[in-house]
Design a protein that fits this description.
By secondary structure, the chain is α+β, with helices and mostly antiparallel strands. The protein folds into 3 domains: 101 residues, no CATH class; 195 residues, no CATH class; 165 residues, 2-Layer Sandwich (Heat Shock Protein 90), CATH 3.30.565.10. Helix content is 56%, strand content 13%. Helix 6 links the parallel strand 2 and strand 3. It is found in: Cell membrane.
């Protein structure tokens, strides 16, 4: 049992180590793979996906009243800068176009003249394309006012209408020949000149000039964007708000984008946990394969198949335990076969032993019945022979009943005090006639007296069996020795628990004769076992004497052992007293 518990503990530790090793290796591999994947997605996939989602979000418009930008400091500054830029471009246009100059208002011509005087009358703006001299239509874009120098198509896509980037103006009307003209405003220093000219004017005058400039440049204040509070990098990454000169604004409704962005962490956690579950499933699959291999091995063990399925390395303790079970099963099967064989032999022996005395009894009784005038002496001799055979048959049947009782564990032990030395001499005296017939001496060596507390009748039965065998198998003209003594012995063996040390009666029965082989020394005490294959009609018993003797010894808490060396055989009875 302790060995099986050792196997179980070792096996549990091996399975725990294997499961933990696979879990740790799988989690480390998955964590590294997940980290590389997360970095790659964040660097390459996430920006493109964010642009795609944000670009798909719809634009929303807020009126000037809803936007409420009038008292916003940054908006007032950006709006003033945009008006200066527009008026500066308009003044530059008037300086280049006499017709437009004639149609302009007095305030506009005054600003144009002042700008020309401040710059020495030189032209401050020019035509970038080859068609600048002939085309009156065109577009002007302010590149010095603010953040973006976006193309017309980019600005149109961003705003959803004709317009320009922050602080820039752009008219998308094309010339008749399909060419596009772009006018650039004066240098920032010229914007500063215009800002100085307008500084003395009131708000209404500046607004009127701004609206006139918008009309002359083919646009409207509601289409002119002002510089946003975003930096250039922020505007590039999140182009989601646009502000216009008339105070209204447009923005992207990024609710869906924000919702998707909010799922980023939770989706990452879910994905990582899914990987952890996959690793756990892999480790559990390994455990399942181990148990499947174990079930196959158990099936092979119980179905008694010759081939043994291989078990994984982690199930080595279980493999050793199964090997022990297989050996135990094989030993039990061999023992059962041996017991079955001995039982079959016993049946044959019984048939022979019972038939022999019965044949004699029937024969002699038949002679008595058929010869009523038989002489009295002969009649008495025949009757005595039939009676002896009946006693022999009764003795054999008593042995069988007694071993049956012992098998059921119902040996009654009735202890009493007696002299063991005297008991040995009494039993020896019973065998003097049989020993004398074979010229065998029986010598009893015992200290007087040896007081014992045991079942005298059962001890006498043991000594009777031992002396019977000793006389039967001793060499002729040899000596059978019986030695009895008391000695200290370790704790009792068998059914009764005693002190760590106790006094024990030790009786040795020794004879010189045929040697008992080592393979038979333990088997001779088994039920139905006989060393010799032949049976003696006269002296052979049922072969149960030594089995009964050992059962009696163990019922007392002792034991019966035997040794046989060079023909010297010694049976030793040891029982606590």
């Amino acid at each position: 049992m302790e060995k099986q518990h050792g196997y179980r503990g070792e096996q549990l530790r091996a399975l725990r180590r294997g499961f933990a090793r696979r879990m740790v290796a799988g989690l480390l591999a998955w964590t590294a793979l997940f980290g590389v994947w997360a970095v790659a997605v964040d660097a390459f996939v996430a920006p493109r996906l964010a642009d795609a989602i944000s670009s798909a979000c719809p634009w929303r418009t807020l009126s000037a009243q809803e936007a409420d930008l009038d008292d916003t400091v940054w908006f007032e500054a950006s709006l003033e800068k945009t008006r200066v830029t527009m008026i500066s471009c308009y003044a530059a246009l008037l300086a280049d176009d006499k017709t437009a100059y004639d149609r302009a208002s007095d305030d506009a011509r005054g600003v144009s003249d002042a700008l020309g005087a401040a710059t020495g009358g030189a032209k401050s703006s020019g035509v970038d394309s080859s068609d600048a001299a002939t085309s009156g239509d065109g577009a002007m874009a302010d590149q010095g006012a603010a953040t973006g120098q976006e193309s017309a198509s980019d600005a149109s896509d961003a705003s959803g209408k004709d317009g320009v980037s922050d602080g820039a103006l752009q008219n998308l009307d094309a010339a008749a020949d399909g060419s596009m003209h772009e006018y650039r405003s004066a240098m920032p220093s010229e914007d500063a000149v215009v800002a100085g000219i307008l500084a003395d004017r009131d708000e209404a005058s500046k607004q009127a000039l701004f609206e006139e400039a918008c009309a002359a440049l083919g646009t409207d204040p509601s289409a002119v964007r002002v510089e946003s509070p975003w930096t250039t990098e922020q505007a590039r990454q999140l182009w989601n708000e646009m502000y216009y000169a008339d105070g209204h604004m447009e923005y992207r409704d990024l609710g869906f984008y924000d919702f998707v962005r909010s799922l980023r962490l939770s989706m990452s956690v879910v994905l990582y946990l899914a990987g952890v579950i996959a690793v756990l499933a892999f480790a559990l699959a390994w455990l399942t394969r181990c148990f499947a291999s174990l079930f196959d091995a158990m099936e092979a063990l119980f179905t008694k198949r010759d081939e043994e399925p291989g078990l994984p390395r982690e199930l080595e303790p279980t493999a050793r335990a199964l090997a022990d079970l297989r050996r135990g099963r094989d030993d039990a099967e061999r023992a059962a076969l041996a017991a079955e064989q001995r039982k079959n032999e016993l049946v044959a022996y019984l048939a022979h032993d019972i038939r022999t005395p019965l044949t004699s009894i029937v024969g002699y009784l038949t002679l008595l019945a058929e010869a009523p005038d038989m002489p009295e002496a002969q009649r008495a001799r025949y009757a005595q022979v039939a009676l002896d055979r009946s006693y022999r048959l009764e003795s054999m049947m008593e042995e069988f009943f007694e071993i049956t009782r012992y098998n059921l564990g119902s040996i009654p032990i009735e202890r009493e005090r007696f002299d063991a030395a005297l008991l040995c001499r009494q039993v020896a005296d019973e065998f003097y006639p049989a020993a004398k017939a074979r010229s065998i001496d029986i010598e009893v060596c015992a200290d007087d007296p040896i007081e014992c507390f045991a079942d005298a009748e059962k001890v006498s039965r043991v000594l009777n069996n031992l002396l019977k065998n000793a006389v039967a198998y001793a060499d002729k003209e040899s000596t059978v020795t019986v030695r009895a003594r008391c000695e200290d012995a370790p704790g009792a063996v068998g059914k009764e628990e005693r002190d760590a040390t106790c006094r024990a009666l030790v009786v040795d029965v020794e004879n010189q004769g045929r040697e008992i082989g080592p393979e038979h020394l333990q088997s001779i005490f088994e039920k139905f076992y006989r060393e010799d294959g032949a049976r003696s009609t006269e002296g052979g018993g049922a072969g149960l004497g030594l089995a009964i003797a050992r059962e009696i010894a163990r019922a007392h808490g002792g034991d019966l052992t035997a040794t046989s060396v060079a023909g010297r055989t010694v049976f030793t009875l040891r029982i606590p007293v």
